[in-house]
Amino acid sequence: MPTLTCLRRGVRLASLAVAASTCVTGAAVAAAPDGVPFAAGSPFNQLVPANPQIAGNSGNIDRALGLSNEFYTPAVYVSRPSDPLITIRLSWTPNPLDGVKVRVDPRAVPSSESDAHVTIVDTERDLVISLYQAKPVSGGVLQATSGGMASLSGNGANRADSSGGRESGISQLAGLITPDDVRRAVAKGEDGDLGHALAFVHHSVSNKLPAIAPALWNKGTSSDPNALAMGQRVFLDSAVNVSALPCQGDAKQQRFCRILARTLQRYGAIAVTNSGNFNGFQMANPIGWTAVGEANPWTGLIGASRSGYYNFIAAAIPYQRMRALAGLGTPGPSQPGLSGGGGSGSGGSGGGGTGGGGSSASPSTSTGSAGGVRIRVNRKSLVARGRVYVRVALTTNRAIRVRVRLRTFAATGGRPVRTRLVTRVLRPRRTSILKLRMSAARVGTAELGVWQMRSGNATKLSVKRFKVG
Known about the structure:
Layout: E1 3-5, E2 12-14, E3 28-29, E4 46-47, E5 66-68, E6 75-78, E7 85-90, E8 101-103, E9 118-122, E10 127-132, E11 141-144, E12 146-151, E13 158-163, H1 179-187, E14 198-202, E15 233-236, H2 251-266, E16 269-274, E17 280-282, H3 287-290, H4 297-302, H5 311-314, E18 322-324, E19 364-370, E20 373-384, E21 387-396, E22 400-410, E23 416-426, E24 432-439, E25 443-454, E26 457-467
């Protein structure tokens, strides 16, 4: 029976093997190495086919690859019998995860940015919990905006009725690079790889193409015809000579660079969520160790990061030789409103997607222009527990500074109940994600406006009124 090596404390934990699992047509299936989560038939544990068919959509992989280590990547905690039972509470409901009790170290904290991801692995219950916008444990409660539950022995997808954490509905554990992955690769010698497909966080995920399993939902933000489908696999051209890559850093870092490249040739990476401008992969956040009084394992394995990223290691991999795979996977289910939620905003200007399970949702796209500036506003909204949640994707044809105003109104009309203002610098060919949330009792409508800010003056680009309740 395969084993899952605990992501901290060095505990060996038995995972539940799956005797039979659904394999994707045309994929080459590898026996999942010891310690790799999810079933052998999971798309994350499948090899790139020997003669891969290249997709018509290039994926817009148009910038250097990166490695996120401390930001927009989850802190992972593995349940131990001695840990106290903590109650999960979610703001975005209904979700069967709300109220679930799980054993977790009470010192657990989320990643230290706005997405605040936490992943909890409970091998005794064959359970992986993904949380988005989590808070530190307080009073026996772990509060989060949204979350999802997946089977550790499943295919890497969350349950359809509890699919938060990543915008795709894929578990936050799937595709995550862990220290154990690196140790296994090093033990294999010069030919080592990480043993599974990587989680690909990308700035160009389609809002038109259907999701590909194990992705549950299409929550892309790009209308570009070359954008990746959520759940689509990309891989490094097998003709690339990994030994000749100009890897940077010391011997350990150069070794990891080549391990990463071999993994991308053999397993590839799967698009799991949107980003603002990041184009790369996620590593287990070191705060999952340091929060509970343990050393950061990454520094011993591959040295110190640079401002929370190992982009300098991944930079040697030629992004121009990355390919999008066609025909791998089956369409996931259609998206019910916004349920699922929770995204990643890795690498700067991006935010995450708002989380799942609200009472109503309304997607809309509008455009506006003034003085040669064109802006596209893609908006989704819902009301849950007396709060209005609006997720806004902004694209523009030139670099501008904008002010975004959200106002909510009671169903009876009159003056605004609440007003929220934010500013953001937009850049061409990049999608900027804003997440707006405010309390509003008896809200009936909302108004979303965008103005260009220049020399102290505001020029209206787009103002739209819409129903949210």
